[in-house]
Amino acid sequence: MPRLVPLKPRDIEVILLSHDFVVNVSKSSHKQYFNSRTGAHTTVSFHSKEIPMGTLRSIVRQSQLPIDLFRK
pTM score, two decimals? Predict the structure, then answer.
């Protein structure tokens, strides 16, 4: 099974938006996403670097999406 690899914020945004998440709040370099169907919410920081592994795992857990969607 492929490993979880660091992703760019834009890649994470594409995954979230394609699974019924909408931007709920956008302040400075952070965007909060909400899924009204599942009630899940998560925050993604938009910096030029890749998201660190621990932060990515937190986003996956908060979004309640399968981890396979975030693997390459």
Answer: 0.90
